[in-house]
Amino acid sequence: MGYVEISRSNPTCYIFLIDQSGSMAEKVADDPSKSKADKLKDFINRFLTNLVVTCTRAEGVRDYFYVSVIGYGLNVGSAFIGPLANKDLVSISEIADKPARIEERLKEDGAGGVVKTKFPVWFDAASDGQTPMCQALNKAKGILEGWLAQHPDCHPPIVVNITDGAATDGNPLIPAEELKNLKSSEGNVLLYNIHLSSGFATPIKFPNSDANLPEQYAHLLYSMSSPLTDDQITYANKTHEMNIDKNSKGFVYNADPITVFLALDIGTRATPPQDTPEIKGDTPE
Amino acid sequence: MKIEYSHFWLSKAGNMASECEDAFYPYNFPFEIISHDQKYQRYAIADGASTAYLSGLWATVLVDGFGSYDDDITSANFFDFIQTLIINENWTPRLADYIKKREHEGKPLSWYDEMALQNGAASTLLEVTFSLDEKKIKENFSTIAIGDSCLFQVRNNDLITKFPLNSSADFDNSPLLISSDPKRNKHLQEKIAFLENQDIVIGDKFFLMTDALASWFFQEYEKEGRPWEIIGENAIDNSSFTNWVEQLRENKIMRNDDVTLMVLTILGD
Q1: Which residues of chain A lie closer than 8 angstroms to B110, CB-CB?
Q2: What would the CATH number be for the domain defined by B2-267?
Q3: Which superfamily does CATH assign the domain made up of A13-267 to?
Q4: Is B114's CB within 8 Å of A118's CB?
Q5: pTM above the 0.90 mark?
Q6: B122 in contact with A, Cβ within 8 Å
Q7: What is the pLDDT of residues A226-262, one digit of tens each?
Q8: Is the ipTM beyond the 0.85 threshold?
């Protein structure tokens, strides 16, 4: 069954829970110049950029989405910096107008050269402290309780938890279940989990059973994750030429950067305004 | 023979009329003004993609460019035509005007406008060409389509042409689109739909419509209905058309989207 169309009068929200614990300072296997936290920072900033551009029309940025980025490490709270610092949930038009800074980066131009491109930044890399995932899930729950009271008929909000380690503040399955029990008239809140790899292990993408998961922690994250929606499965199979089954979960394990990009792209695919062309975001650097 | 025509449009519910991203050509009705040496009489509609930036403007540039062109457009020169006449001569100056206007209004393009512009605008296109001889139309027509804006030809109360789609099952959320960025049009090469030398007789009616209405049209027809008769009863003026479309939307019979309809009737002289 398809969900209600996302519109300015009936927007939905995305919440990103970003692991900012000390282990995120480890370098990524395929790019020793960057830490996992650096890579994640780039992914989320790029995601926000693409989302803003997707919502941009001649008259301005349409508020189809509200977005929260919650960091968890030394503290648990909004990861936005600059004008949006300490804000839990921000409209996409406000995100558009208030990046902390706009960097310039080089990008391939498709003809063998490079061009300068703008790279807005809303939050920076951080890696300190433990992994208070339960607190982060509870924080998301609090935000969504308020959101759903005001938007009872919205497309189910999507929460994406990105982490490289186990929770240090309890069993995250309990707050995860509480979070997923929240719902709009369109359906329950969707919680997806992206587990970041520390090495060269083969990523496991969108499993539909826990039978072949390698360890206890993978089983836990699998249990916490919601199934992908029909729209997301159709999109993944068509656009990314995947072969995902109907009961597959929004969960990737041992994700390398490409897999993180893939999971973010598929996991945040929500029923868009009709007749949209495929506008693909930039691939990761 | 000559052509009488009418057009109707309605923006998506929840959007302002100025946000409608459909476009049509021509604007003079019920009869187009034809000059003595004119070779072709053309009609066009376009459906600007709802998620691409400035798609309404791009749709307008497309229908204006195709509709007012008075030479041959073939599969061989199609992309050259898009590049030279549509993009270089029309789109680029219109875009420059838009940017100047924004600056003049104290709202220069922001980083996200610039990035959205780089993605290009996108639109469907449906164009119908009638050949002229001494200001009278000859007995055939040709048509070009990219995407899911549809043409239906009705003769003696029978549907004799449906183009470019064949059934309600042919619609999906990612129709073919012409982009204002030529690099994004390479995949269209083999996919542009052409129909040439189709005959016409006095009394024929042509219905050009964007996808939400076209999908409804097919569904009615597939139920052995005569959707052209229902259109005839409801597309009398803009007010009756609006009431009818709003009712279809409310009853979930028609998807909520911008709607454009053009009706052409072939008359004797």
Answers
A1: 96-97
A2: 3.60.40.10
A3: von Willebrand factor, type A domain (3.40.50.410)
A4: yes
A5: no
A6: yes
A7: 999 988 998 899 889 999 998 899 999 988 888 888 8
A8: yes
